[in-house]
Amino acid sequence: MMTPFNILVVAFGGGLGASLRFLTSHCIAGLLPDLKFPLGTFLINIIGCACIGLVVGFSTKHEVSETFRVFIVTGILGGFTTFSAFGLETVTLVRGGHFIEATAYIVGSVALGCLAVFVSLLATESKLLTP
């Protein structure tokens, strides 16, 4: 349920999650400065997916308040990585037997997301979007 309190809870959790992402990414980059692979982001995405699975799985078996759930799932994990939500939504589609939709979601999200970044970079680099 969307309440003013839940919005504040999500905002607070999002700040915590984004801070955790920032710290994690910088710690990994500091440990492996010459690594060309984006290991920090990769690990953040995998950790976020594991965490969202644990939280959602736990909250389906145990009584967990909606406020606590949105704080963790939407707030902290949403700030940490939106990839976890992508993973959960994809698995939900697959488990519901919606294989075509899941495939379209995966391919569309990755391909169109990368295309959107590419086009946006081109637009800004060509000064189309700058004064």
Descriptive labels:
single chain, 131 residues, mainly alpha, 0% strand
Ends apart, CA distance between termini: 42 Å
Q: Roughly what fraction of the amino acids lie in strands?
A: under 5%
Low-confidence stretches: none
Largest sheet properties: none
SSE pattern, N- to C-terminal: HHHHH
**How many β-strand runs?**
0
Count of helical stretches: 5
Mean pLDDT, all residues: 90
Instruction: Indicate the overall shape.
Output: globular
Cα Rg: 17 Å
Indicate the structural class.
Answer: mainly alpha
Helix fraction by DSSP (H/I, runs of at least 4): over 70%
Describe the structure.
This protein has 131 residues and is mainly α. The chain has a domain at 4-81. It contains 5 helices and no strands. The chain has helices spanning 4-31, 39-61, 66-80, 83-95, 99-125. The longest helix has 28 residues, at 4-31.
